[in-house]
MBL fold metallo-hydrolase (Ancylomarina euxinus), 100 residues
Amino acid sequence: MKKIFGVILFVLTFWANSFAGDQYMMQMIDIEHGSGFWQNGYVLYNTITRDALIVDPGQIDQQIESFIHDKNLIVQAIFNTHGHGDHVGGNAHYQELYKV
């Protein structure tokens, strides 16, 4: 778990620099895909610009899509901490849905 948060912090550091000079606030939602083998996914987003990053979409999850829709977020990218199926399983779906 520490490794995942370390990677997310690393990504946020560089992503936040793209907003230099702007006031911004980053938020994160933890999406639990289930128990056991399937891991959590995350949606990180900027509360000012509404730009969002989906992290580890292990499977197609209505909770992710509803959250993005309800917050009117603009998905800019999908990020995977590593290539296991429980982290990349939803990539193709979200790439097509959000054109990223």
